[in-house]
Design a protein that fits this description.
The chain has 187 residues and is an alpha/beta fold. The protein is built from 4 helices and 7 strands. It has one domain. A hairpin with a 2-residue loop joins strand 5 and strand 6. It starts with a helix and ends in a 12-residue tail after the last strand.
């Protein structure tokens, strides 16, 4: 692991919380088509756990925008959903550029009856790391699972407006795969 990556993950642990131990990883690597590796914060201590990827930051193919190098995260009680969706989105970050406040239609990734049909991306953390002569932007992109009506609302009115509405209902920043859509239009 590079010195920059070590600094990044140390900063994540300081700001997000101590990573749960032991750290589990996939034997079949992400680079070779395996699942993305996840760090967790809060497993076994609370209902909702923070899942953080750790395969993206140093990946040479990752498309880097305003956050620079970044990892993905989600807050959920469903490890399988997070592993599946963060792996698929992680693969997309090697092909497409994603920025905070983007929306992602995940209908092709989930069952047609799944409550959550989209993602709203949000900047969870932005850092400048490295040496004073060579500071590099890096960050953490939070992925929030949303229903089809919420996805359409975000596309019409902006992701930040949806995030504010989800916050008012108590859903934010959680991804709850079996939840009903919140009434974002009535607010």
């Amino acid at each position: 692991m590079s010195e920059l990556a070590e600094s990044f993950f140390q900063a994540l642990e300081e700001r997000v919380g101590s990573f749960d131990r032991p750290i589990n990883f996939h034997v079949y690597p992400f680079d070779a088509g395996g699942g993305i590796n996840l760090l967790t914060v809060g497993a076994g201590r609370q209902e909702f756990v923070t899942y953080l990827t750790w395969d993206q930051f140093g990946h040479q193919q990752q498309k880097r925008g305003s956050l620079g190098r970044f990892e993905l995260c989600a807050v959920s009680a469903d490890r399988d959903w997070c592993s599946d969706i963060l792996t698929k989105l992680g693969r997309q970050t090697l092909i497409e550029l994603f920025e905070p406040h983007d929306t992602v239609d995940i209908a092709q990734w989930v069952h047609p009856d799944s409550a959550l049909q989209g993602l709203v991306l949000e900047e969870a953390l932005r850092l400048k790391l490295g040496t004073p002569a060579a500071l590099e932007s890096c960050g953490l992109m939070r992925c929030i699972g949303v229903t089809r009506p919420e996805l359409e609302f975000a596309r019409q009115h902006g992701a930040q407006t949806l995030i504010e509405r989800l916050r008012m209902t108590g859903v934010y920043p959680k991804t709850i795969p079996d939840r009903a859509s919140v009434d974002v239009i009535a607010r």
